[in-house]
């Protein structure tokens, strides 16, 4: 047989049949749900008199709407309170495993799946959330879906899908000091564009991804969707298996050995065919920050904000719009831009390794006066692990608020929001207008260590010079 | 399950909301997602562009009285990128629109919209600009979109566009909501489920 990619193998083993419009009916092995995009789907099932096809393959948690300070119920926000109650009731009624707010296992849905070992190589994973691409870090085919599709998966455990093309993105060489997984993915999106991935799945390959930890791979895969690709993955390897071994839902004993053998055989074979291949050099990647209103509007920290007269004609209107919203001067350095808020959190960068790195640079440092700094672990387990290591104390001493797990200021569905035109140095994944809760609010995306540098200086800064290159060597 | 009406074309007046990379957070801000049904979403459509911080109208094209009753929304490239929220096409649909014409579409948005029977036609830059200017110049202008030809006709000029085959076939045959067909595949679904070790092993716990 001709050499095949992981994507083809997973797709073929999950393809049920061809539908009349030419799409594939694709089996979804693992369905993750949360409070925002599922209640309407359950409502549709009720209207149609349908039940849940495989409740044992459906897992739920609550993340977007939960307050990260006062978590007692009922929530102050009545609408949010309705939503958590609806999720709880739907899970109970249909027999779905639910990692509830006070279960000790609650967190952002894309953190909970990997932590519990639910996310496994070679599986198909769907969730009503675009950052489902995160789970591709394990060699799964994982993508975000809409609410009608959540209904389809609940009712049939399948989806109608068109098979995307496959692009291999290879990054070879060594990353410099202070260059993190976040910088790699921001650089890729900047290079290929926010719509460059439309119609594609991304395979991340090459030395840089091979060396990455699972947490770093998750950061990269998380933002595939910001480049337009619905799904992105890394081939499974020993790093993947080491992460999964012993997790609650991972196979055990002889089953574990058999699973690892199957998973190894899944990786893309050399000589397999791709629709496109992009090769990048790690040495060219600098700490990267966004200056505009989409994640592709990014520059290296030492670069200047673009000038509308010096960009391609097709980008002019977008550049002008972004500069106006961001209140930045065309052609000026991004370094030195004053910030109001520093946000460490989200499913992109709120894992234990992120907080460890931040804590290592923040010892003996203080958040600049006037900056509101909040640190929000992505899951309750991350929160507890940080607390066992004293990371929370280091962050609090530095002037960060230490919160409970949730989406928090990544999006404006809970009490954590920007006010007015506040500028936020953020470790999250979206700098869209209004994303952080104020229509005029401004977001600058960057790695967690760069957020820490911005927090202590009060301005967008190069972490390498703020903390010293030796300290930030990743 | 109720059968859906085939959608062969859309005719009506239009409103232009220009700009590239209009993400679903802008189409429907997250605070409007605090709901357990889609019923009241029309209100939130482009909310933060239509009103300023103090709740005053910004005279957004969507609120121009002459545009009331428009059924076609014309925008820029990469429309509906970002969040998977189906609330975005739901809000557009519930505000009375039957089609969106843009340079290209975010993939999840495109799928969500098609399932609702909201036609998403993509045009090349030049055609899009021509359609956009014509719409902006004349609020009374009648447009017509042919799903079969994947084209739009404005003032006697027809512009060819792009509409993925799967979506086109689905709209034309009234099968754009795939649930009935997915349910009909149950036997084959059970076979695939049984063939996958991680599924057959149950929850693994
Ligand atoms: S942290 Fe942000 S991006 Fe991630 S699931 Fe929550 S809202 Fe979405």
What does this structure look like?
The complex is a heterodimer of chains A (474) and B (205). Chain A has 474 residues and is an alpha/beta fold. Chain A has helices spanning 6-14, 39-48, 78-94, 109-116, 147-156, 181-192, 207-211, 214-222, 238-244, 253-264, 313-326, 352-362, 380-388, 391-398, 448-457, 463-467, 469-472; strands spanning 15-18, 24-27, 30-33, 58-61, 97-99, 124-127, 141-144, 158-161, 165-172, 200-205, 231-234, 276-281, 288-290, 298-300, 341-344, 372-375, 401-402, 423-426, 442-445. Chain A is globular. With 205 residues, chain B is of the alpha/beta class. Chain B has a single domain (9-176), classed as Alpha-Beta Barrel (Aconitase, domain 4), CATH 3.20.19. In chain B, the strands form two sheets. In chain B, strands 1-6-7-8 form a four-stranded antiparallel beta sheet, covered by helices on one side. Chain B has a four-stranded parallel beta sheet with strand order 2-3-4-5, with helices on both faces. The two termini of chain B are 36 Å apart. The mean pLDDT of chain B is 95. Chains A and B meet through strand 1, helix 2, helix 3, helix 5 and strand 8 of A and helix 4, helix 6, helix 7, helix 8 and helix 9 of B. The structure holds iron/sulfur cluster. Iron/sulfur cluster binds at residues 63-64, 108, 110, 129, 131, 346-347, 407, 410-411, 428-429 of chain A.
What number is the mean pLDDT of chain A? Answer: 97
CATH homologous superfamily classification of the largest domain in chain A: Aconitase, domain 3
CATH superfamily (homologous) name of chain B: Aconitase, domain 4
CATH architecture tag of chain B: Alpha-Beta Barrel
Overall SS class of chain B: alpha/beta
CATH class of the largest domain in chain A: Alpha Beta
Percent range for β-strand residues of chain B: 5-15%
User: What does the overall shape of chain B look like?
Assistant: globular
The CATH architecture of the largest domain in chain A can be named as: 2-Layer Sandwich
Side-by-side strand order of the widest sheet of chain B: 1-6-7-8
Largest Cβ-defined interface: A-B, 91 and 70 residues
Compute the number of helices of chain B.
Answer: 9
Ligands: iron/sulfur cluster
Q: How far do the termini of chain B sit from each other?
A: 36 Å
Low-confidence stretches of chain A: none
Span between N and C termini of chain A?
41 Å
Question: How many E-type strands of chain B?
Answer: 8
Largest sheet of chain A: 5 strands, parallel
In CATH, the topology of the largest domain in chain A is named Aconitase, domain 3
